[in-house]
Amino acid sequence: MKGLNLVIFIAIAVMATSCGTLIPANQAKTNYLPIDRSYYAESSIINKTLFEENKANEVSQVKVKKEKTAIEELNDIHAFAMASFVTGILSEAESYLGVPYRYGGTSRSGIDCSAFVQRVFEIFDQDLPRISSAQAKEGHPVSKDELRAGDLIFFATNGGSRVSHVGIVHNVSDQGDVEFIHASTSKGVIVSPLSDSYWSKRYLYAKRLID
After folding, report:
1. Is-contact 193 143, C-beta < 8 A?
2. Which residues are identified as catalytic?
3. Integer Cα distance of 25 and 69 in angstroms
4. What are phi and psi of 203, to 5 degrees?
5. DSSP string, 126-190
6. 173/8: higher pLDDT
7. Does the reported pTM lie above 0.85?
C-alpha cells in the first residue's frame, strides 16, 4: 500500500511540474510552422543573376577598354610614322634649297617646280606625274585653313584657273601662317610665305598625299 501511494505521489509530482510547460498540439502547430524559405531562395537567385550580369558588364568594359587602348596605340604608331615621313619629305626638299630654276630641268644643276616635287617624293616611293597639272589630280582636297606640312599647293601663275605651279607646304605656324618650298622661276628653290600678295592672289587649292 505504501508502495502504491509512493508511485501515485511521484506521478502527481511529475504531472504538476511538467504538464504546465507543455504546449497543446494545435498551438504548437500554429507557433512552430517551418519557415517559408522561398523568399530567400528567390533573393538568392536574383542576387546571383545580378552578380553574373555585373560580372559580364565588367568583363565587357575591360574588353572595350583594351580594344580602345589597342586602337589608340595603332593611331599613335600611324601618327608617328606619318610625322617621320613628313620630316623626311621636308628634309629632302630642303636639300634642294639654292638649286637654280631651269624650265624642263630635273636635276640639282637646274630644276623646275613639278620636277622638284616629283624628285622629292620619289625618294619615299611616292610616284607622281611629271607636270604640275597632272600632280594636281593626285591625293585628296584640303581646305586652306587645314593645310599642314607635306601638303601640295597649286597656283595659276599664268592667270585663269589652270594649274601652272606647285609647291610643298613647309610649315604652318600656330597663328595659321603658311610657308611653302618650291622652285621659283626667278630665285630657284626657296621657301616663300603664302601670305605674299603674289602667291595669295594666284593660289588655287591644295592636295594631301600623306594621311
Report:
1. no
2. 113, 165, 182
3. 71
4. -65, 135
5. ----SSHHHHTTSSEEE-GGG--TT-EEEE-TTSTT---EEEEEEEE-TT--EEEEEEETTTEEE
6. 173
7. no
- Cβ contacts of 59 within 8 Å, gap of 6 or more: none
Residue 151: Cβ-neighbour burial (10 angstroms; 0-12, 13-18, 19+): buried
Average predicted confidence (pLDDT) for the chain: 81
Q: To which H or E segment does residue 113 belong? A: helix 113-122
Q: What angle do CA 186, 189, 190 make, to 5 degrees?
A: 90
Nearest to 184 by CA among 173, 199, 197, 205: 199
End-to-end CA gap in the chain: 122
Q: What is the pLDDT of residues 79-110, one digit of tens each?
A: 777 888 999 999 999 999 999 999 999 999 99
User: Which grid coordinates belong to 158?
Assistant: 599664268
pLDDT digits (tens, 9 = 90+) for 39-72: 444 555 555 555 566 656 655 555 555 566 878 8
Residue in this structure with the C-alpha cell 613628313, named with its chain if needed: 86
Q: How far apart are CA 120 and CA 100, in angstroms?
A: 16
**Per-residue b or e along 160-178, where b marks 16 or more CB atoms closer than 10 Å to that residue's CB:** eeebbbbbbbbebeeeeeb
